[in-house]
Design brief:
There is one protein chain. The chain contains four helices and six strands. It has 138 residues and is of the alpha+beta class.
Length: 138
């Protein structure tokens, strides 16, 4: 599986994110995705420049299987703060393939639907397998 296939899988082929690192250890493929750093960002509240306050890493609870490999995903984003002292605007990078305020990607609901095709699995077992609540899985 090459970078282009992984980008299509995560739906980042046309976004402002890019794959920065891929390495394979056994049957696990470790992938790091980061945001492309924009040249100029301005505060939507006051119009001043916003500056990076450092990086953060997220490790979604995904169990993506592709071409016989388990994909272990790490996303690297930045925190941003307005340079105007009177403005308190802050924000963080958002990734299109991650659900807002969740630790799962947008691929997980599709995998849950596929798991429900197995009549021998209960809703609770599927929820444990994908690290979500049974209500979310249902």
């Amino acid at each position: 599986m090459n970078d282009h296939t992984i980008a299509q899988l995560l739906d980042i082929a046309y976004s402002d994110s890019s794959i920065t690192d891929i390495h394979i250890d056994g049957h696990t493929k470790f992938i790091t995705v980061s945001k492309n750093i924009p040249h100029d960002l301005f505060c939507p509240l006051c119009g001043s420049r916003i500056h990076s306050k450092g990086q953060f890493k997220r490790h979604p609870n995904d169990q993506i299987l592709q071409d016989g490999y388990l994909i272990d995903l790490t996303v690297v984003g930045r925190r941003w703060k307005c340079s105007n002292l009177d403005c308190s605007y802050t924000c963080t990078d958002r990734f299109d393939f991650l659900e807002k305020r969740k630790r799962t990607s947008k691929i997980i609901p599709l995998q849950i639907i596929m798991a429900f095709k197995d009549i021998h699995l209960t809703c609770a077992q599927i929820a444990r397998r994908f690290h979500v609540s049974d209500t979310y899985a249902h």
